[in-house]
Amino acid sequence: MNELIQLIDAFERRCGLKICFHDYSGRIYNYFHGDRFRHKNEYCDHVKEQAGLDKCVFIETRKVQLALAGHPDGFFKICHGGVVEYAAPIMEGTDILGTIFIGLFRLKSHSEIPDAILCRCGSEDLMPDFNHKLYNKLPCIEQEDYKDIEEIAKSLKFRIETLLAREEEIFFSHERKIKWEIEKYIGQNCQKDINIQHLAKHLCLSVSRTGQLVKKLFNMTYPELLNKNRISHAKFLLSSTSLTISETAYRCGFSDPAYFHRIFKQLAQTTPGTYKNENNKTKNMMI
Fold first, then answer.
1. How far apart are CA 204 and CA 213, in angstroms?
2. What CA–CA distances, in Å, run from 232 to 35, 62, 180, 252?
3. Does the pLDDT value for residue 122 go beyond 80?
4. Residue 131: per-residue pLDDT
5. Which one of 21, 128, 135, 240 has the minimum C-beta count within 10 Å?
């Protein structure tokens, strides 16, 4: 990560341009200082004062993001203030997680970048005051610098996407381990009087976080997951032992046979008695 920040700093010093990010996913913000997520430029502030912040927001949310979807490698854009920056999407599959912006700089002529995408709101757009001191403080880069901008954007895009992919892989690897731990714990203890507090303690997590993970990983609540495991164990006992219905209920962690009967019928679509009669192949087998 330090290498990435050093790369950004070196490029900014060499070209006099600034690199910033917009984060649409909440996953990029953790890697850079907060100042990297706004256009820190006096001329940019001047444009916002003149044209209004709403116009910048409209361009960002409507026009730029739509253009990003069709230009996965990035593009030069000319904003409604008449200045140029390069925008490149940070992707995960087909999802746009954020945008890299490199700029701002001024052109001698807009024809210098023939494939620039003009991001405008309408005919009333503010165009640059070529004599304005803030406009003239912007760097005016040479034609050969365009390729460097594209290359640094491509490099940053690749490095950040790789970083996020690795983060996602680690995250899902951790989730798979948590899921296995939950399955093992409930499978080994479902016949006992266990609640979500016991599972949370086993996982070294808070009760609320444990409940969230169970819901996310199994698409059901903790009581639903526990009952599913208990009924699965009950099916095994009913089909392979001579235990009575009540004894089976107690062996599976149910303190009330009537409640066991109701949950079994709800999940198995039949009663415990019917299931036992249809599936038990043993006679007078004691455990």
1. 13
2. 54, 51, 17, 9
3. no
4. 62
5. 240
